[in-house]
Amino acid sequence: MTPPVLIIVQARMASTRFPGKVLAPLLGQPMLLWQLDRLSRVQTPHTLVVGTSAAPENAPLVELCQRHGYRIQASTGIAEDDVLGRFHTIAEAYPEAQEIVRVTGDCPLIDPVIVDALIAQHRGHNMTDALQRDGYWHTPIDHTGIAAEWPDGQDCEIFSRTALDLADVEATASHDREHVTPWIWSQPEMFRCKTLPCPLDLSWMQTSVDTQDDLTMVQHLLDWILTDVGFSFGWRDIWRYIVKSPMLRVWQQRRPPRNQAYVTQVGSGKTWEELRYRTRRTPSAFKAGIEGA
Questions:
Q1: Which domain holds residue 68?
Q2: How far apart are CA 91 and CA 279, in angstroms?
Q3: DSSP 3-state assignment of 29?
Q4: Torsion 72-76-78-80 (CA) sign
Q5: DSSP class of residue 152?
């Protein structure tokens, strides 16, 4: 029998732009609880763990998860920014797990259907290609720029335990260790890196929370969706409400470039697309339309 997938949500109280955002109130509940509730609905057998550090400021995060019955591991002896080391330590506590899903704790509207689809695609290729066991799948575009991109806020990645073990040993750059997977996807000769295409091009759309303004907009969006759709909403509902709301469309225009923290740390002068996909991405027709309006 295939062992459960290990889903790790990385979360901590420290944040440059919005300290404590993971516990910020979202419609009366800490933001992280929305995300954990949605991830708990992933249909694939899984173990869901929140990964944080043992820094004193993360104590409220640990208490919240324990009070609500969610597993959390606060790693000791690992630098605060060594998130890769934290992932490896958590994975060691679940030796039966051979596949690890990574999710960041600033995506309260993540759709469990996407996570299930990502796992299914990864496992489907494992069955037909033994090399894929050491592979890596994710939700944005691939290096060819052909696969349509999921929104920022639906980000998830899956990689093998072998890939994680090698990355923990070989990755030495601080930006590789803080962002967990760059060392893996920068080794195409070693790992089969593939993507889960989005049925629509939603590269312009972002629902992750980096600032207080983001949280305010997500709260408006969530309030409207819950009123009309209910708690089982999906990514298509999110897309529909953003498209029809002038306020939310303006919010999309104000968002900074994707993964700007990683780009700044690398300091090469390249964009995220150039670093990750070795190409410049042409803006989607919708994004060009709202920016030109």
A1: 1-284
A2: 33
A3: strand
A4: positive
A5: B
Q: Which residue has the tokens 């066991």?
A: 133
Please indicate, yes or no, if residue 290 is contained in any of the structural domains. no
* Residue at 162 is within a domain: yes
Question: Which residue, among 66, 76, 87, has the nearest Cα to 7 in the 3D structure?
Answer: 87
| pLDDT tens digits in sequence order for the chain, 293 residues long | 789 999 999 999 998 889 999 999 999 999 999 999 999 999 999 999 999 999 999 999 999 999 999 999 999 999 989 999 999 999 999 999 999 999 999 999 999 999 999 999 888 865 333 333 345 666 653 334 445 678 999 989 999 999 999 999 999 999 899 989 999 988 878 888 888 888 888 888 999 999 999 999 999 999 999 999 999 999 999 999 999 999 998 888 777 666 667 667 766 677 766 766 665 555 554 444 444 43
Q: 198: domain CATH number? A: 3.90.550.10
Q: Tell which phi-psi region holds residue 145, choosing left (phi > 0), alpha (psi between -120 and 50) or beta.
A: left
- The strand ranges marked E within 83-135 are 99-104
For the chain, strand residue ranges (E) read 5-10, 25-26, 29-30, 46-53, 71-75, 99-104, 136-138, 157-160, 193-195
Phi, psi angle pair for 276, to nearest 5°: -85, -40
Question: Is residue 293 one of the residues assigned to a domain?
Answer: no
**Domains in the chain, number:** 1
Q: How far apart are CA 51 and CA 104, in angstroms?
A: 10
Considering the domain boundaries, does residue 292 fall inside one?
Answer: no
